[in-house]
Design brief:
This is non-specific serine/threonine protein kinase. InterPro entries: LRR_Rcpt-Like_S/T_Kinase, Malectin_dom. Keywords: ATP-binding, Glycoprotein, Membrane, Nucleotide-binding, Phosphoprotein, Signal, Transferase, Transmembrane, Transmembrane helix. One of its GO terms (molecular function) is ATP binding. Pfam families: Malectin. By secondary structure, the chain is α+β, with helices and mostly antiparallel strands. It folds into two domains: 207 residues, Galactose-binding lectin (Jelly Rolls, Sandwich); 28 residues, no CATH class. 21% of the residues lie in helices and 30% in strands. The chain is built from three helices and 17 strands. The strands form four sheets. The chain has a six-stranded mixed beta sheet with strand order 2-3-1-15-9-12, with no helix packed on it. A hairpin with a 2-residue loop joins strand 16 and strand 17. The protein is elongated and about 115 Å long.
């Protein structure tokens, strides 16, 4: 009763829902509007200002986010970074033009999830440290990743995972079990990396987007997941039909071209026979009889293809 509004939603043992009703959610970290991703998920915006020790829970109590820590002399009080650059290795470039960061501990919570096995996809891109030849490029962002309290990545470095490239998307996918209708994704800065390059307040964990979806082990899913699944199946069927039609057309075209070439060859041969005459063709039986069953006494000599007989 003394907890601030909705803080109980972020406590594993004090749920704020009557019964679990969700089997997926997706978040665009730092985004300001919903975005439909190439995976058909609707990425909800996460642009809440979370300085020092603060949290945010959506009106639907579907997910929440918390931040702990304070940058020394920060120039970015909202802890959200932006870029207008385009990303070439993803179909969802807009998702990565914003990112949420934290000086110490950044957590995302899934609330009211149906129990079962889930796929957790975390999406990153380094958009603050450039990959040019300037001194700013030596900045390093290193942090650990925990899911459900289990350490998944130690000393995770976004740029290292992309071979030193900035503005390049990298994903990490994990399979986890939800047992108490609750999931905890924790990005934690353990003091490694740089703190002051190119300026104070841009180190610590950073994430661009994340999505959590059920593998359907409990046989149920929310309406959004079912609709997306239906769209995916429809797209698959259409793709198969189009591929079959294209292959059928190519096979028909190939057969038609082959028949045309064969017919043209037959016409050319007939024209040749008209000019030089049709060659004499003998059956095997006629040749055998004429050579007295290929008798050795009828051999005139030998050529490149074997004995030559007189007839």
């Amino acid at each position: 009763s003394i907890l601030p509004s909705r803080l109980n939603c972020l406590q594993r043992d004090t749920p704020c829902f009557d019964s679990p009703s969700y089997s997926s959610f997706a978040v665009d970290s730092g985004g300001s509007r919903p975005i439909r991703g190439s995976d058909n998920s609707i990425y909800e915006p996460d642009d809440a200002s979370l300085p020092v020790a603060s949290y945010y829970v959506t009106d639907s109590t579907r997910w929440g986010v918390s931040n702990i820590g304070r940058f020394m002399d920060p120039s970015n009080g909202s802890y959200i970074i932006y870029t207008s650059r385009q990303f070439t290795n993803t179909l969802d470039s807009e998702l990565f033009q914003t990112a949420r960061m934290s000086p110490s501990s950044l957590r995302y919570f899934g609330i009211g999830l149906k129990n079962g096995m889930y796929s957790v996809v975390l999406q990153f891109a380094e958009i603050f440290f450039p990959d040019d030849e300037t001194w700013k490029s030596v900045g390093k962002r290193i942090f650990n990743i925990y899911i459900q309290g289990d350490l998944k990545e130690t000393d995770f470095d976004i740029k290292k995972q992309t071979n030193g490239k900035s503005y390049t998307v990298i994903q990490r996918q994990y399979t986890v079990e939800v047992m108490n209708n609750f999931i905890d994704i924790h990005l934690f800065w353990a003091g490694k990396g740089t703190c002051c390059i190119p300026e104070q307040g841009f180190y610590g964990p950073s994430i661009s987007a994340l999505s959590v979806s059920s593998y359907g082990s409990n046989g149920e899913g929310d309406s959004g997941s079912q609709r997306n699944s239906t769209i995916s199946r429809t797209g698959l069927v259409v793709g198969v039909v189009v591929c079959v039609a294209v292959l059928g057309f190519l096979a028909f075209a190939g057969a038609f071209v082959w028949r045309q070439k064969r017919r043209r060859l037959e016409v050319e041969m007939e024209e040749l026979f008209t000019i030089v005459g049709r060659p004499n063709i003998f059956s095997y039986g006629e040749i055998k009889s004429a050579t007295d069953s290929f008798s050795l006494s009828n051999i005139l000599g030998r050529g490149g293809y074997g004995p030559v007989y007189k007839v």
